[in-house]
Write a structure and sequence with these properties.
Layout lengths: L2 H10 L4 H15 L3 H10 L10 E3 L2 E3 L3 E3 L10 H6 L4 E7 L2 E3 L7 E4 L4 E4 L5 E3 H8 L6 E6 L10 H12 L5 E5 L14 H16 L7 E5 L5 H14 L3 E4 L13 H7 L3 E4 L3 H15 L4 E5 L5 H10 L3 E4 L1 H6 L3 H14 L11
Parallel strand pairs: 3-15, 4-9, 9-10, 10-11, 11-12, 12-14, 14-15
Antiparallel strand pairs: 1-2, 5-8, 6-7, 7-13
Helix pairs in contact: 6-7, 7-8, 8-10, 10-11, 11-13
Length: 358
């Protein structure tokens, strides 16, 4: 068994989840965001190049399909070390116009029996200006900007927050994600309703089309949408000619958990991620691909712990993959091992590309 899973993770998992997150991110930021640290991470953890896994999407060269989902590096502090660990693209955020502390602690919990996390972070971030200063140094690493509204901003004024984020981040990120699906900001998911969603997307698209080089715009959706609500999402995406969708965010559903119900209930509200959301995420990816056709880009996220999980989502219709909880549980060799599995499966004929973009 690998060192991380046998010794390091069991030790870390005895401590508060958010404290451990801050320890790890501080270590990456202070210890590995320099030339020597970058060399070490690449030497030990960076995967080799797999030409068969490369894709060109939106004119960007993705060295392989797996990137890091938003939430891990909210403030763009870890772009270089995360890239050195092997992620082909990094999604920062969710960023709001003004920095905010987020919800009260504790707000991040592990459910080890189910390889899951529950969080109710509440868009905690340092705001646009701090992130932009770091993004100026990102180099050639592909970075997406996941944007949202401040907690105190009423929904009827939310579009102004998204527009402010878009305009400020435009020169510094490679694509944008409109996050209207976090369960941890009161009322936010109401923005997924057809009318407010169409207004939001059209406003951002108008600002985007006024630029000399428009950036790809994606929508991040919840896994808890009904088929009727998904059909509304599809209609809005088609009307607004959006570039793609990220499926999915965390879920408020707890029925897939095997952990003790009283323990789960004691945690309270929050978005569930990890293994329990994997199947629902894949179902939604397949449904969206069948409805949207081949053109829009779908980024699949939810319960990706290895190469087999990534392949399952690609076969369902995803072009790219994101991970977060799988990275937490599998450790720093997550990407290296996942790509080895994907490459072996591709060369042995166990899977084939259906949605690869050249």
């Amino acid at each position: 068994m690998p060192l991380y899973k046998k010794f390091i993770a069991p030790l870390l998992f005895t401590q508060d989840a958010e404290k451990v997150h801050h320890w790890i991110t501080a270590l990456l930021e202070k210890g590995f965001s320099n030339t020597l640290g970058s060399f070490f991470l690449k030497l030990i953890y960076s995967p080799k190049d797999y030409p068969e896994l490369r894709q060109s999407i939106w004119g960007l060269d993705f060295r392989h399909p797996i990137g890091l989902a938003a939430g891990f590096d909210k403030d763009a502090k870890l772009i270089q070390p995360l890239s050195d660990l092997g992620f082909s693209f990094i999604e920062i955020g969710t960023l709001t116009p003004v920095g905010q502390a987020g919800n009260e602690k504790p707000r991040l919990f592990r459910i080890k029996e189910d390889q899951a996390l529950i969080n109710r972070m509440g868009f905690n971030n340092g705001g646009l200006e701090d992130a932009i200063q770091r993004l100026k140094k990102k180099g050639n690493i592909i970075v997406g900007g996941n944007i949202g509204k401040n907690k105190v901003t009423p929904n009827e004024e939310a579009v102004n927050d998204y527009l402010r984020c878009f305009n400020a981040l435009y020169p510094f990120v490679d694509y944008f994600v409109l996050n209207v699906s976090s369960p941890n900001t009161p009322g936010l998911r109401a923005l997924q309703d057809k009318e407010p969603l169409q207004k939001l997307i059209q406003t951002i698209q108008k600002a985007n089309s006024s630029r000399n080089k428009p950036k790809p715009i994606l929508l991040k959706i919840a896994p808890d949408l009904s088929r009727f609500e998904l059909d509304d999402i599809v209609e809005v995406l088609q009307i607004c000619n959006l570039d793609g969708v990220i499926a999915t965010n965390t879920t408020i559903d707890r029925t897939q958990l095997s952990a003790d119900k009283r323990m789960v209930e004691s945690i309270g509200l929050g978005g569930l991620s990890g293994r329990p959301v994997a199947n629902r995420s894949t179902e939604i990816i397949k449904y969206l691909r069948d409805k949207l056709g081949p053109k829009p880009i779908i980024i699949g996220v939810g319960g990706v712990f290895n190469g087999r999980d990534a392949i399952q989502k690609i076969h369902a219709g995803a072009n790219l993959i994101q991970a977060y909880t799988g990275f937490v549980y599998e450790g720093p060799k997550f990407i290296k091992k996942a790509l080895q599995e994907m490459d072996y499966g591709l060369k042995s004929g166990h899977w084939t590309w259906k949605n690869r973009r050249q």
